[in-house]
Amino acid sequence: MFAAATKSFVKQVGDGGRLVPVPSLSEADKYQPLSLVVKKKRCFFFPRYKFTSTPFTLKDILLGDREISAGISSYQLLNYEDESDVSLYGRRGNHIVNDVGINVTGSDSVAVKASFGVVTKHEVEVSTLLKEITTRKINFDHSLIRQTRSSRKAVLCVVMESIRTTRQCSLSVHAGIRGEAMRFHFMDEQNPKGRDKAIVFPAHTTIAFSVFELFIYLDGAFDLCVTSVSKGGFEREETATFALLYRLRNILFERNRRVMDAISRSQLYLDDLFSDYYDKPFSMTDISLKEGTHIRVNLLNHNIPKGPCILCGMGNFKRETVYGCFQCSVDGQKYVRLHAVPCFDVWHKRMK
Predict the structure, then answer these.
(1) Closest Cα to residue 50, out of 22, 29, 25, 30?
(2) Whether 349 contacts 285, CB under 8 Å
């Protein structure tokens, strides 16, 4: 009966589908802000999830003894009084039959009267909680973490808000035939024995709650999934390996791109240098023909093997030469390898 009333309350209040009805009166005190619940999909054919309470809070599964200081704000939500009769036929009727716990033989409908009175909403200050958990880590040795992690269908959640009653409340149910005399008729002496049921439960009873899922990484860090787009769970070994390989791929790609950019700039520089040399008259560029300039020599005659030209060898291909200059030196060598034409003249034009 209590489950039927809380389901009806959640359906009427709404809250965008985030609100979950408390399944039983005996577990109502376990759905308090910052309490932990386990969310698990029932099976392939039933898209709805089942929420199971736990005796732990968020602090219990974190490393360290520091308390969570995120405050909880409270305010009045509404005054709830509901009187409705529900047909026993159809999907909702089947749920009602299982929840109300009374004899419905020979009946086609059930009248339910729920008097919750003023209910209050108690919710965690999300911004404060997010700041606190940025440096906290999950304790993987905790029994709840080990058990939840072993199931791929289970997701650990934190209760972020709860809706509670403020006074003693009553629930009444009557099974009968739909008609004018049936609606909200709860007089025991006028009904067959066992076809009416009424319960009273105390104030400050939680009737609904909402949760944020937790996504827990392999290093113990975790995220609070504050939107419906993000999903909770545990990071798997294969997921972490794939993410590492993806990051390495991006690093190598960026490094190769920088190397190719450097080679391209070097090649453009040489192309501009040679084009500038060839575009000018020969008499102005052939410095080696002028008096007092350095002299080209064949390095093979001095037992020096050929190698890449210091000027044009900076491109994509190492252009080798046997010529050079003994009057110039670079990098500790007492000579400079340079092609006879045009690198020798371009080099000395730059040096000049």
Answers:
(1) 22
(2) yes
Predicted confidence (pLDDT) per residue in 103-124, tens digit: 555 556 667 778 888 999 999 9
Distance (Å, whole) CA 37 – CA 52:
6
How open is the CA angle 70-72-75, to the nearest 5 degrees? 155
CA distance linking residue 131 with residue 50, whole number of Å: 30
The DSSP symbol for 63 reads S
pTM, to two decimals: 0.59
Give the whole-angstrom CA distance, residue 324 versus residue 337. Answer: 4
Query: What's the pLDDT score for residue 162?
Result: 93
Closest listed residue to residue 226, CA positions, set 126, 121, 123? 126
Distance, CA of 175 to CA of 185 (rounded, Å): 10
CA distance 97 to 110: 9
Q: Phi, psi (5° rounding) for residue 173?
A: -135, 140
Which two three-digit tokens encode residue 339? Answer: 């092609």
